[in-house]
TrEMBL record:
MF annotations from Gene Ontology: quercetin 3-O-glucosyltransferase activity; quercetin 7-O-glucosyltransferase activity
CDD domains, alphabetized: GT1_Gtf-like
Family, as annotated: Belongs to the UDP-glycosyltransferase family.
SUPFAM superfamilies for this protein: UDP-Glycosyltransferase/glycogen phosphorylase (SSF53756)
Keywords: Glycosyltransferase, Transferase
Protein name: Glycosyltransferase
InterPro entries hit by this protein: UDP_glucos_trans, UDP_glycos_trans_CS
Entry's EC annotation: 2.4.1.-
Species: Digitaria exilis
Organism taxonomic ancestry: Eukaryota, Viridiplantae, Streptophyta, Embryophyta, Tracheophyta
Length: 483
């Protein structure tokens, strides 16, 4: 490259990437984190979601007016936000609304930004790839779950696997019911529940399968995972017919630092949580969180409360505001008031509406994580090296739980349904002090090192991100020189 070409490249504006995201916490977290990774390497990343989600993010972060649209410096690049008007629609209505009206609004957004080098879409918004293709903009998809779950959906979408009827499932995890190359045998209870007849979220299933219909329009399929975690799946998947897309692991998409660009939709009690953890002994705290969408019924909240109290161990329980009234009468006063009060066995308990989860998992006081096994939480606990108590509810959580407990060997399963307080106590004890607890911790520590190496400079996922940045930069440079 000549000196003039080098100077021209240096003076050119950075490539502009638009990432469009479904407005739930489980999708916002990995998408925004990918945006930050791209920005840190010198790109301009515009994060797009709905106006309702944007208002919650702004309120939780206390962002000054205009800061989200003008952008925030991240590394050598910048992250900015734009929002599609959702007119206050709730989640079920929102799926229909977005499918009907968002494509036109998103097309107009791309028209306003003629410099867009690539659109990164989302499995719940398959139309984003179509809009990008119509606009002549290269597209990618960020799959926010595991490579294994992607493979299950791909096999199902192309009629390569027949799922057994649910009534045949006897909940025996050792019983082989579904076999897919690179994936351990799965029972019905271990499949992504969105594929089962009993699934109540039909529109989500349709949206996900819709992404597989137009996946060929995407030049890249990124996965929030890392190569070392899913070697068998990644080795087997390319041999599938019809020829599948290449899966490009770019995870774990975790927070690498505490910067000002966050996507929390509920304000986390950061300082309070950390100050309380600072008062606890190493590996003593049971951290409990079931994500931003799972809604536990009243009887399970009661059993969970009594089960946690009966362990005699300190616990930090994330209970969203709408669920808190389901706690047993007097529970907060007796065992979880403010910074915690002594309970039987010397334990203490704290209930918060939201938490800085990665800071909690990374704290020396955290001994285990009772989790719904959402993929973000799965990767965050893998990266932190914390053993788990697996309590999956639906969707990919069912498959994630199997991998954490049986394949990675970093946790135990909480027996349910029905959920019983005795089962909570027994599972926590097994994870923290059981006969396999030390081995689980050692395996968790090893996986933590592998996860962090993957996203460190020169790691497997970092190389994949850098290769994408290099490619879009090359394409943008070529486009600019030919115009």
């Amino acid at each position: 490259m000549s000196n003039n070409e080098v100077a021209a490249a240096a003076a050119a504006p950075p490539p502009h990437i638009v990432l469009v995201c479904f407005p739930t916490q489980g999708h916002i977290n990995p998408t925004l984190r990918l945006a930050k990774r791209l920005a840190s390497k010198g790109l301009l990343a515009t994060f797009v979601t709905t106006s309702g989600a944007g208002a919650k993010i702004a309120a939780a972060s206390a962002s000054p007016p205009g800061a989200m649209s003008s952008g925030v410096r991240v590394g050598r690049g910048r992250v900015r936000f734009e929002f599609l008007d959702d007119h206050g629609n709730e989640r079920d209505d929102l799926m229909r609304f977005l499918a009907a009206s968002a494509p036109a609004a998103f097309a107009e957004l791309l028209h306003r930004h003629a410099d867009v080098a690539c659109v990164v879409g989302n499995p719940f918004l398959p139309w984003a790839v179509d809009v990008a293709a119509d606009a002549g903009v290269p597209a990618a998809v960020l799959w926010p779950q595991s490579c294994a779950v992607f493979s299950v959906y791909y096999h199902f979408a192309h009629g390569l696997v027949e799922l057994p009827p649910e009534e045949d499932d006897d909940h025996d995890d050792a019983r082989v019911v579904v076999s897919i190359p690179g994936i351990p045998p799965l029972s019905v209870a271990e499949l992504p529940s969105f594929l089962l007849p009993s699934n109540p979220f039909k529109m989500l299933t349709e949206a996900i399968l819709g992404q597989f219909e137009n996946i060929g329009k995407s030049s890249w399929v990124f996965v929030n995972s890392f190569s070392e975690l899913e070697l068998d799946v990644l080795a087997a998947f390319p041999s599938v017919s019809p020829t599948p897309p290449e899966l490009i692991p770019v995870g774990p998409l975790i927070e690498l630092d505490d910067d000002a660009v966050r996507g929390d939709m509920i304000k986390a009690a950061d300082d309070e949580c950390v100050r309380w953890l600072d008062t606890q002994s190493p590996r003593s705290v049971v951290y409990v969180a079931v994500g931003s969408i799972v809604e536990l019924p009243a009887d399970e909240v009661t059993e969970m409360a009594h089960g946690l109290a009966s362990t005699g161990r300190p616990f930090l329980w994330v209970l969203r505001p709408e669920t808190r009234p389901l706690l047993p009468e007097g529970f907060v006063v007796e065992v979880a008031a403010g910074g915690g009060v002594a309970i039987a066995g010397g334990g203490r308990g704290v209930v918060v509406p939201w938490s800085p989860q990665e800071r909690v998992l990374g704290h020396a006081a955290t001994g285990c994580f009772l989790t719904h096994c959402g993929w973000n939480s799965t990767l965050e606990t893998v990266a932190a090296g914390v053993p788990v108590v697996a309590f999956p509810q639906w969707g990919d959580q069912c498959t994630d739980a199997k991998f954490m407990v049986e394949e990675l060997g970093i946790g135990v399963r909480l027996r349910a349904p029905p959920l019983r307080r005795e089962a909570v106590r027994e599972a926590v004890e097994a994870a923290v002090a059981g006969e396999d607890a030390d081995a689980m911790l050692a395996r968790a520590t090893s996986w933590s090192a592998a996860a962090r190496a993957a996203v460190a400079p020169g790691g497997s996922s970092d190389r994949h991100v850098q290769a994408f940045v290099d490619e879009v930069t090359r394409r943008a440079s070529g486009k600019a020189s030919s115009s």
